[in-house]
């Protein structure tokens, strides 16, 4: 790859990933490991989930800020692993477990918090809605990662604008809490996330079926 191609590739990376790379670059020769940064991300995410539980306006705004910090910190461990060579299989699994825990518990916390508000007017228990949204988003993430492993990153490339990807919409969560829109946000997540998860499951099954077909055809071409 030429220098121009490498620089173009860097520019095309999400803005938060590029910023994370700059922040962790001084740490590549230090005692700090990617697992340390994963732990920071996990603690911030758990704190965000807990801060949503009271359901008050002030705590919801605190929770949104903590979540934004956690979401950004999620990029730092991977960037440090790349620049320092300190990545490991255990670290990768730890990162996945942290992502799963933070995502599910965040929406569960939102659901519990909404449940403390009188007159929410929801057809289903807020806790159930939060759990459904969190589990669906986690399933989407895991399946997209699996598809990426099988047929390459380009297959799961997200739409981007000005250095931000589709998933970066969660950085707008503080605007949701500032506008007191937690209930509509929970409802939208509980509806849209499971629907999108169904589409991703169908896409995943198609990819796996296509790959099995490729393997079978390759086997048939092998001379006996």
Account of the protein in words:
The protein is mostly helical and 224 residues long. The protein has a single domain, classed as Four Helix Bundle (Hemerythrin (Met), subunit A) (Up-down Bundle). The chain is built from eight helices and two strands, in the order H-H-H-H-H-H-E-E-H-H. It has helices spanning 3-12, 15-24, 34-52, 57-84, 89-115, 126-151, 173-178, 182-221; strands at 160-161, 164-165. Helix 6 runs parallel beside helix 8. The radius of gyration is 20 Å and the shape is flat.
Short note summarizing the structure:
74% of the residues lie in helices and 2% in strands.
- The main sheet orders its strands as 1-2
Looking at the structure, what is the overall shape?
flat
Helix-strand string? HHHHHHEEHH
Number of helices: 8
- What is the total domain count? 1
Share of β-strand residues: under 5%
CATH top level is Mainly Alpha
In the CATH classification, which architecture applies? Up-down Bundle
Number of strands: 2
Q: How many angstroms does the end-to-end distance come to? A: 39 Å
Radius of gyration over alpha carbons? 20 Å
Helicity range: over 70%
Class of secondary structure makeup: mainly alpha
Low-confidence stretches: 1-11, 160-164
Query: What would the average pLDDT be, to the nearest integer?
Result: 84
Q: From the 3D structure, determine the CATH topology.
A: Four Helix Bundle (Hemerythrin (Met), subunit A)
Write out the CATH superfamily name.
Answer: CDP-alcohol phosphotransferase transmembrane (TM) domain
Largest sheet geometry: 2 strands, antiparallel
